[in-house]
Amino acid sequence: MRFVKITSPANPIIREALKIKERHARYRHEAFLIEGPHLIDMAKISPNVEIKKVFFTEEFSNRKEGQRLLRQIAHSMEREAWSAKLTTFIQVSEQVLNKLTDTETPQGIAAIVSCKIANLDKLNFKGIPFLVVCDGIQDPGNLGTIIRASDAAGADAVIILPETCDAFMPKTIRSTAGSLFNIPVIYSEPEILFDYLNSKNIALYATDIYAQISIYESDFKKPVAIAFGNEAHGVSEALLKRAKGLKIPIIGKAESLNVAMAASVCLYEVVRQRAYGSKKMCENVSI
Question: Are residues 110 and 127 in the same domain?
Answer without folding.
Answer: no
